[in-house]
Predict the structure.
Amino acid sequence: MDALDQLLTNGLNKTILLVLTLSSLFLVLEVSGILPRQLSSWINRNRLNETIRLLKEFGVDVETARRVNNVSRFESISGKDLSSRVKSRLKEIKLSHPVTIGTQIVVPGNHYIDLMGAASDWNTANMYARDITALWRQLAGVGGPIANTKIDFIVTPKTGSPLLGAAVAELLGKPLLLHNPKPKFGSTKLEPRAFFDCREVPAIHARALIVDDSSTGGGKAAQLVEEIRRCGWQVSDFLVIFEPQLKTDTKQNAAERLRPMGITIHSIVKT
């Protein structure tokens, strides 16, 4: 029996030594940047999950702490003050004469807010991006209406305000994908790079946050959502600076069109 105990003890010691050796090896490889990104992400994800489990066991409100941490670096401003500030800025780029608006369903309007044009300037795009992140703080902070605040990347229509999307992505510290309304090339298999300009293709089940200057009828956004999901990614929220109400009476506005798709559009002001 003593010999068996000794054998088991030696086996256990060797197992512990092997685990410690592998752990040390993984740590060295990760710190040196040699460890493959997918493996590093898997290790860190499991390490994070174990930490969260332990915190919950000790009674820590992990979700509240996560929400606070995710938005603490963004400007804290009341919804009313943010709306007032944005309305003042939009007046400077408002064209006050009759226009027609829409790509699929064209409707007449008595003015046009050219934020798409104004946001072609990087400084202006940055200014409005700070407004978007202030809105995000309200939505994703403690008590905010967004349930799943985990975001893996930002996506913006290339035919919308790509610089605004880039500025928001930089502030949120997330990769940016630009959506092409038509695929750049044909492919015998589903190829995300045909529909999206990106440095790296997000992993399957990664979560997107759509950002643009505005959305009137939601046609571009609906196509974008379909292609995000076709690539195996998730999306539920769409952030814009302003939301035109020209098509609201006929229920052909963006909010109505996107709602059945499980997408909520969040705007700072409605015009």
